[in-house]
Amino acid sequence: MEIAKALASATILAACTFGSASAAELVVGFSQIGSESGWRAAETTLTKQQAEQRGIDLKFADAQQKQENQIKAVRSFIAQGVNAILLAPVVATGWDEVLQEAKDAEIPVVLLDRTVDSSKDLYLTAVTSDLVHEGSVAGKWLVDTTAGKPCNVVELQGTTGSSPAIDRKKGFEQALSGHDNLKIVRSQTGDFTRTKGKEVMESFLKAEDGGKNICALYAHNDDMAVGAIQAIKEAGLKPGKDILVVSIDAVPDIFQAMAAGEANATVELTPNMAGPAFDALAAFQKDGTAPPKWIQTESKLYTQADEPLKVYEEKKGLGY
Amino acid sequence: MISDVRLYLNRLLPQLIALCVIVAAVSLVFPGFLSLEIQNGRLYGSLVDILNRGAPVVLLAIGMTVVIATKGIDLSVGAVMAICGATAAASITSGHSLAATLLITLCVGVLCGIWNGLLVAVLDIQPIIATLVLMVAGRGIAQLITEGAILTFNDPGLIFVGSGSFAGLPMPVVIWLVFGALVAALVRRTALGMLIEAIGINRRASTLSGVLTPVLLVAAYVLSGVCAAIAGIIAAADIRGADANNAGLWLELDAILAVVVGGTSLLGGRFSIAASVLGAIIIQAINTGILLSGFPPEFNLIIKAGIIVFILVLQAPRFRTAFAFLVPARGARKPTERAAK
């Protein structure tokens, strides 16, 4: 019995040593903001998946929306002597000191999804999406789809004054400029929520001749589009046919709507920010090639032709 | 009897005037505002939208009126809406019947109310602090139930509660009309309303004169919880999903505002449920009007605040005194007349 136990523990010990030996190539600490939205939860899931695929030992810390927790987490990563740190900063300011500590310890820091107001030499690179570009991808889709036909567009903005709302509006308008057939006739905030998206769309429909005057809807996120689709249906119109629907984010529910023919296109804000970050880190560890200071993630356009049900199944399990 | 009706209308006069002015102003900016038509067997138009979109705040305001009349306040209603919406969605997706789902959700609302009521009535914590606990914790509880995601459902019965129609009116409107009438009848056709006012004016004196203050206080918060539960079900059914982050967000403030616009004092005492309902409709009329007017969204809150300040000024005793001085009051307005002298 004793021998069996000793053997077993020896095997486990060996397995552990071997396991850590292969994973010891890279130990990465990840300080996540929290799980305030479905997208954030999906980002966490994907980061863990990506780390596992690459055999990276990921140490995860959830900051529950608090900067002090993130600073604590980064300090503890430094103390543990990790090879690199991923940081999704909850706010833009106040990072200089802890980033300097990481730099002094020669641990590269990669920012995920958001940036900081610190000197650029304090971090290796930032992996983020370009919000203006997302808006212009959506705008370009509409320009191509309408192909010169006159079209009145209504816009559901995000929370007034938030940077996604400002930038996604800007990008969309940039894509539309020079195409006089497309006109934004109404633009209101839907606060990024389904409830407000539905309420505001109801009033758009009333204000524009029962919706007969509207040819397309552009929503700054999918949730508002999902709410608006219900409003369009309740007004007796067919979303996706009578009124084209294009939005941004690519959350699972919009793919269900696309499969049902009720939404036309969505631009993905990819939750896979960690993949490009790990690639950059691997290259940096291998021969010291420093990546550019900003890595822009792809803003992929999905339409009804992209097997929406299949994408829905893929995305469903990510924790959105 | 006729003088009763006149007194009643007199009480609601400022709110009715405000509502008429807002409706008139919006229909000037947007001519189609007043048009009503029958579409798919239900009334369709902006006026119906106001009644329909206003449903959650109307329901919250009904409960809030009674709580405020006891000199309390219930900050947790928005969070209770989120909890109850999440409960309804979780229950229906896990295969319970519609009746069971509604019952469970209402019970959760009652529980939330009992929690608030016990903190206020038994532990004697100030209402604003006591209900703040659930306001902060509630959204977390709701997120635990939905596991952080928007929990969607496709049960036709539950969806009917949010977007079905009965006798040509949207279901939410029917629900708040019936529920409001029930509560108003309960407090005004019995001595209950008077006892609630007594607690609000002087809790100690009412206890000493034999009113069961703790029981009534808990009952007031339970009513508020039930109102929030119904509002939560409607909000979730409307979008076919429970959004723990956003359902009922800041609606407690709109409900308090509705009560104040309705002319009930935050210091407790005399209250009117009909006036609070009108207050909630006024707020929604402003919201819908702003959406229809086509102003840039940056102006939304400024316009809303301006109109509300105007309505509150209309109700201010000093303004009314000055007004009564300018326009000689008739017999029904003895207090103002006296004040004018």
Provide structural commentary.
The complex is a heterodimer of chains A (320) and B (341). By secondary structure, chain A is of the alpha/beta class. In chain A, 47% of the residues lie in helices and 18% in strands. Chain A contains eleven helices and twelve strands. Chain A has a six-stranded parallel β-sheet with strand order 2-1-3-4-5-11, sandwiched between helices. A six-stranded mixed β-sheet of chain A has the order 7-6-8-9-10-12, sandwiched between helices. In chain A, strand 6, helix 6 and strand 7 form a beta-alpha-beta unit. In chain A, helix 5 runs parallel beside helix 6, helix 7 crosses helix 8 and helix 9 runs antiparallel to helix 11. Chain A is elongated, with a radius of gyration of 23 Å. By secondary structure, chain B is mostly helical. Chain B has one domain: ABC transporter involved in vitamin B12 uptake, BtuC, CATH 1.10.3470. Helices cover 72% and strands 4% of the residues of chain B. In chain B, the strands form three sheets. Chain B has a two-stranded antiparallel sheet with strand order 1-2. A two-stranded antiparallel ribbon of chain B has the order 3-6. In chain B, helix 2 packs across helix 13, helix 3 runs antiparallel to helix 11 and helix 4 crosses helix 11. Chain B is globular, with a radius of gyration of 21 Å. The two termini of chain B are 29 Å apart. The C terminus of chain B is likely disordered. At the A-B interface, strand 7, helix 7 and helix 8 of A face helix 2, helix 11 and helix 13 of B.
What's this entry about, in short?
The complex is a heterodimer of chains A (320) and B (341). Chain A has helices at residues 2-23, 38-53, 67-80, 96-104, 131-146, 163-176, 194-207, 222-234, 252-259, 274-287, 308-316; strands at residues 27-32, 57-62, 84-87, 109-112, 125-128, 151-157, 182-189, 216-219, 244-249, 265-268, 294-296, 301-303.
Beta strand % of chain A: 15-25%
Helix content of chain B: over 70%
Q: Biggest interface and which pair forms it? A: A-B, 34 and 33 residues
Mean pLDDT of chain A comes to 90
Oligomer: heterodimer
CATH topology of chain B: ABC transporter involved in vitamin B12 uptake, BtuC
Which sequence of strands runs across the widest sheet of chain A? 2-1-3-4-5-11
Query: What is the assigned CATH homologous superfamily of the largest domain in chain A?
Result: Response regulator
What characteristic shape of chain B results from the CA principal axes? Answer: globular
Briefly note the structural class of the backbone of chain A: alpha/beta
Distance between the termini of chain A: 48 Å
What is the H/E string of chain A? Answer: HEHEHEHEEHEHEHEHEHEHEEH
The tally of domains of chain B stands at 1
The CATH topology of the largest domain in chain A is Rossmann fold
